[in-house]
Design goal:
Elements: E1 2-6, H1 15-28, E2 32-41, H2 43-54, E3 62-66, E4 72-80, H3 81-90, H4 95-110, H5 118-135
Parallel strand pairs: 1-2, 2-4
Antiparallel strand pairs: 3-4
Helix pairs in contact: 3-4, 4-5
Length: about 140
């Protein structure tokens, strides 16, 4: 089950389409979908989580808590709508495109993709682009 929760003045208008997209990406990566919760929030909300759980006093666009067991993908994905808007502006892409990138980014982490090294970042970006193209 994929659920979408809102802790800020924002709401998706295509939840069903996005749920199918996310499920298809998980299946395509060889996993099964468990319980995935997206929580859309603002910078302050996400900063509090970053400080409390990760001991990072910095703004970020996404924090994911991975509860995956074996091939069953589950987790909570917190996304700052403020950061996504700013990043979209900084990267000269649409808000919608950047939001899709961040949403699938969390799922790809659950599937085992990393983004610490340059080669890992390139692979992650390639996968993000691939799945974004599947939704467009």
């Amino acid at each position: 089950m994929i659920s979408f929760n809102y802790e800020t003045e924002f709401e998706l208008h295509n939840e069903d389409q996005l749920s199918v997209w996310i499920t298809n990406a998980i299946l395509n990566e060889g996993f099964r979908q468990g319980e995935i919760n997206y929580i859309f929030c603002d910078d302050a909300y996400l900063l509090d989580l970053n400080i409390e759980f990760l001991d990072h006093d910095t703004l970020t666009d996404i924090i994911s808590f991975d509860y995956t067991l074996g091939k069953l993908i589950s987790g909570d994905i917190y996304i700052s709508i403020e950061r996504v808007k700013e990043n979209a502006n900084d990267f000269d892409v649409t808000f919608d495109n950047e939001l899709k990138r961040v949403m699938i980014h969390g799922i790809l982490h659950y599937c085992g993709y990393k983004d610490k090294s340059g080669s890992d970042q390139a692979e992650m970006r390639s996968k993000e682009n691939y799945y974004i193209s599947k939704l467009s």
